[in-house]
């Protein structure tokens, strides 16, 4: 009787100690293999690459003091607006061709503005020599 009771207690203890693990699961119910949530989608990686380049350009301009604080603030605010627009568009999980084109155009325009403003700022500080002093 004791042996049966001990086996029953160990069996019950063994079943209660097995609990679901709290970590991301990559099974058939997750979006791991979902074609609508692919991170390797060509459009999303292109937008991600452009966002990275724009952010890097702004940070580089600030670090090298090629952008004034006011210009950098304006560019960062525009970057945040574009990121918010991307979140709004990708709320369904996937960007349409039109949404991708809009985001890409806005990011390319912001990248061009960043380059233009940093050159203008350098140009005005260096007397038109792009970084070289007149004296």
UniProtKB/TrEMBL annotation:
Record keywords: Signal
Signal peptide: 1-20
Domain of life: Bacteria
Protein name as it appears in the record: Heavy-metal resistance protein
């Amino acid at each position: 009787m004791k042996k049966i009771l001990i086996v029953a207690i160990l069996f019950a203890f063994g079943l209660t100690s097995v609990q679901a693990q709290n970590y991301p699961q990559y099974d058939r119910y997750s979006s791991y293999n979902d074609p609508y949530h692919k991170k390797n989608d060509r459009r999303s990686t292109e937008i991600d690459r452009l966002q990275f380049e724009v952010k890097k350009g702004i940070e580089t301009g600030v670090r090298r003091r090629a952008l004034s604080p006011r210009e950098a603030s304006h560019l960062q605010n525009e970057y945040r607006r574009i990121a918010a627009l991307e979140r709004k568009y990708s709320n369904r999980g996937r960007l349409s061709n039109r949404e991708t084109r809009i985001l890409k155009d806005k990011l390319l325009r912001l990248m061009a503005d960043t380059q233009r403003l940093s050159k203008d700022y350098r140009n005005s500080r260096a007397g038109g020599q792009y970084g070289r002093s007149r004296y």
